Amino acid sequence: MTKKDIRAILFDMDGVLFDSMKNHAEAWVRAMKENNLTMTHEDVYMNEGRTGGGTIDLFAQVQWGRNATDEEKEYIYKVKSDIFNTLPHVEPVNGAWEVLKAVKQMGLQRVIVTGSGQKSLLERLEKNFPGIFSADLMVTAFDVKHGKPHPEPYLMGLEKAGLTAGQAMVVENAPLGVQSAKGAGIYTIAVNTGPLADEVLYNAGADIVFPNHAALLKALPGLIR
Q: 8-19+91-223: what fold?
């Protein structure tokens, strides 16, 4: 891997750019409980990256013995989103801005690949990270048929950027996101901003795991050479 090969870094959003996972976990647990489904906070972290509909179906299949209907999925996800929007304000992950500025200064494209459909966060990307991302280089829950861990989100990110897998790297924080990126054939960096052990991210296929964005920022020049 040489510097001239790497032309873009594809970033997950929740847990990588925004410190939002605690709120997502609380909102999911409460919304599922209100709709007779049981989901723990750990379940949320382990399933981070799935689309909302995919997450609901996964738990409905086990606990109801069937997929949720489209109407049920729409309703449960609305309840989840409404709860999310009542929780304390979500701040950017410490160090994310510095990493993004460094990536831009290196002349690399920045691509968002998120399983989220949380509009309140998607709409904050430009406010919190001005001049970093553009709408034509974003893949969200609204764009894909198959969410993470399927490789479709990251393959779509490569397609939007006009790149091959060997010309990009991914920054993720979740095991399903790592699986998605590796399934697309992309070198994958995990920044462990959540409660899961590093081993979980390595077992998912991460090429390297950092404890925080400061460590990633320090290592970044060496990673793209």
A: Rossmann fold (3.40.50)
